[in-house]
Amino acid sequence: xxxxxxxxxxxxxxxxxxxxxxxxxxxxxxxxxxxxxxxxxxxxxxxxxxxxxxxxxxxxxxxxxxxxxxxxxxxxxxxxxxxxxxxxxxxxxxxxxxxxxxxxxxxxxxxxxxxxxxxxxxxxxxxxxxxxxxxxxxxxxxxxxxxxxxxxxxxxxxxxxxxxxxxxxxxxxxxxxxxxxxxxxxxxxxxxxxxxxxxxxxxxxxxxxxxxxxxxxxxxxxxxxxxxxxxxxxxxxxxxxxxxxxxxxxxxxxxxxxxxxxxxxxxxxxxxxxxxxxxxxxxxxxxxxxxxxxxxxxxxxxxxxxxxxxxxxxxxxxxxxxxxxxxxxxxxxxxxxxxxxxxxxxxxxxxxxxxxxxxxxxxxxxxxxxxxxxxxxxxxxxxxxxxxxxxxxxxxxxxx
Length: 400
What we know:
Structural class: alpha/beta
Radius of gyration: 23 Å
Strand order of the largest sheet: 5-6-4-1-7-8
Distance between the termini: 27 Å
Number of helices: 13
Oligomer: single chain
CATH superfamily of the largest domain: Phosphoglycerate kinase, N-terminal domain
Helix content: 25-40%
Order of helices and strands: EEEHEHEHEHEEHEHEHHEEEEHEHEHEHH
Shape: elongated
């Protein structure tokens, strides 16, 4: 299913007139999970393939850079090598791994690139100047290529040397993934097919309060799940037992409830719950056909009446945006609510957009990742874009 988009307003890789052998510095998002030195989820690498394949088909030489994790130093376990090796497997072509981010060794490797070759620089966060958007590092990166392509949507909300600073020193355009992410997500708030139904879960209201406030003004219905619902219940004086309640979130939830009274959207909270004696897969469980949680129990999932109600809202939507699980879906006794919402989103006839790592993981776990219109590769970038904030990695690109 195609997803509606709005104009990016920036030049893209499609606008480039590349000569054979043009060197392209490509900022991708290969920040993937590793276990024992192997990639355990290559979704972000696969998402980078269309731009890489386009550039190779046009005869470009690609100097690829990405961060991986949050290294404190040049820690071998945070090397980009496992990700670049997996990229080579998916491309069906070798990807050379440099031993550093910049420097003479890297410059020699770049000089040896032929049209269609791919060289992966080391983890950009091995350089202390990366997260500080150090201008010297940005200039050193820019000196490696003729043009810059940013395709790392998941890092576009960071003002780093490889995401924003480098764009000040060379022609800079958006990759195919970055363009699709930004235009698809902007369309949710600017030109949604209605009704627009937003499903928000997760643990903390403080992480989502700006998003809730934005969608109360632009959506038709906002459905709340996950542990953050208990901040809303606490704000109304409803007993939460031993459930996780974010102290800061109670006041924020109270403000959101007040705002909802004068807003366009209906703000819906769970009607029933699934309780556990503790946060464990082998904990004693019980259904609660209400929302007042007794002492000694904690709410760990939404109940069947809630999932039925939420599924009906989703089924009638023209556009659905889902971010955050409905409960502790990683524990099987408390996975039903998230599974039901995931299935409802997958079955929805309208445009369906899913953002956030946990929601993406749930879709993958339930075998539904291919059933949505757009599955975002971003986490924080999704939230900041939908909140109406500008993304430094996008703003730094050349205007169309």
